[in-house]
Amino acid sequence: MASLDDLERRVVCIEERNRNVAAVKAWETSLTRHLCLTALTYIVAASFLLIIREEKPFIFACVPAISYFLSTLVLHRIRDRWVARRQSDKSKSQTAVQR
User: Which residues are CB-neighbours of 69 under 8 A, at least 6 positions away?
Assistant: First the structure.
């Protein structure tokens, strides 16, 4: 059987891991991250358009950058609905199995 000290160390480790997970989740959903990725998308697209000598590379590079940014605003809502529906379907199937 685990000692009290061992259990306390395990709880401390779990709490530390949870703090790390929360920090990563905060970064993944932060506006800073989305803006950085939008800027990076713009830079890569503009660079490519410059290399292929497109007529208006800085204007055309806005299209993928804006598309990325808008998708980040919408996709989490779609994901949340998908997860809710999936959980609802699972609970319905578990209820049917129990009967």
Answer: 34, 35, 38
What pLDDT is recorded for position 90? 77
Q: Domain map of the chain by residue range?
A: 4-98
- Residue 69 burial by CB count (10 A; 0-12/13-18/19+): exposed, middle or buried? middle
Local mean pLDDT, 10-residue blocks, the chain (99 residues): 88 96 93 96 98 97 96 89 90 68
**Alpha-carbon gap, residue 51 to 35, rounded angstroms:** 24
Helices (H), the chain: 4-28, 31-51, 57-60, 62-98
